[in-house]
Amino acid sequence: MKLNRFLSRVALALATFAAAVAVGGAAHARDAAYQVIYEFQGSSDGWAPVALPAIAKNGDLYGVTYGGGTYNLGTVYKLAAPLTRGGTWTKTVLYDFTNGDPGYPTSLVIAKDGSLYGAGNGPNTRGFIFRMTSATSRDGQWTYSTLYTLNSASDGSAIQGITLDGEGNLYGTTEQGGDLGCLQVGCGTVFELKRPIKNGGKWHFSVLYTFKGSPDAAEPAAGVVFDQEGILYGTTYAGGAIDWGAVYRLGHPAKKGQPWTESVLYSFDRSNKNIIRPEAPVIFDGLGNLYGTTVLGGDPNCQGGFGCGVVFELSPPAKQSGTWTSMNLHAFHGGNDGIHPSGYMVFDPEGNLYGTTQVGGAGNGGTVYRVKPSARKGGAWTEAVLHGFTGSNGDGAMPVSGLTWGKWHDLYGTTWENGLCQGCGTAFELHP
């Protein structure tokens, strides 16, 4: 699973990080640009916020913690935004996962009506999808319901993120399951959970595609995104022509009742620009180019020759039958630069890309970075580290989920580690 890969990959970095903190570490930067807006306290408050925060229209943040709560099965929380930048954010636990729920939530999105939809991979389940409806009564209680629990190997196993379409239907991926003849545990699926026609009706689950393994894609470690025509795009950690990962597209059926059509747009390869192992979703620019990250590849002098990761661009072919072309926008170098970029990236209006690395940076707790295009067409992009997480003095570490825009046009994210305790985590704000 993606979580297990992440934990094993950062084990060595954690040892280095702990040593740095023991001797004082880097100073915690509490300047005008960056601030921790909440430090999770563990126990009933929750620990290890794993999902990208969902942003409400008024700027409030909603999210999930992987652990903590009354039964240590995770929580759904709200961070109410202050009236002015720099003010105090107010934390509320909206839901405690209990022994009767699957538990261990991993992602959350917000619908147009303010309802929350999330997914998780609780014990003794292949994965589940839930909904939280906003409080309408004076007691302020939210209503929780499980919409669907993956109940067979063909459904898939280990949900890796969900997204909403314009009609309120949910789409996502599973990293394993599907065809158990692929890698013995299955190479994953793309699924749809279609909302009921009438209020109170049953949601309908269907598998849109089952990955087959190399040369097909395999093991999606992130969810899917839509283009303007409603076509789905995503990445897989493995599969592709060389089995180093792939970018795939999933198109609507030509006729109702027919299967969706999948195609591998790009196969990652160590011998071709050395970009391998994507763990993050892709995003589009206005011209139809795709952008993403890989946790390995790039600088051959980093991480024992496997590289510290890359920000890449994929450009569509001039003709429909042509091939997509790749370009490395930045290769991470370790040290004060980041290592293992993952999670969601975002654009600003000037075309700059912002994202996070899991580890690396001055404090070895990860970074927030910006990659800026050249003023000259075809010129090199330039990278700048905007914040290096230290894990000391209340700062967080390991921002694995990436970034999103929110109130005051600031960037928001969470860290998996540190804050008040090593495994507690934080929510942060950055004004670039």
Question: How would you characterize this protein structure?
Answer:
- By secondary structure, the chain is mainly β.
- It has a domain at 270-388.
- Helix content is 5%, strand content 41%.
- It is built from 2 helices and 35 strands.
- Residues 6-31 have low confidence and may be disordered.
What would a concise description of this structure say?
This protein has 432 residues and is mostly beta strands. It has helices at residues 2-9, 11-22, and strands at residues 34-39, 47-49, 54-55, 61-67, 75-80, 90-96, 105-110, 116-120, 128-133, 143-149, 157-164, 170-176, 189-194, 204-210, 217-218, 225-226, 232-236, 238-239, 246-251, 261-267, 275-276, 283-284, 290-294, 296-297, 310-315, 325-331, 338-347, 353-360, 367-372, 382-388, 396-397, 404-405, 411-415, 417-418, 426-430. It is built from two helices and 35 strands.
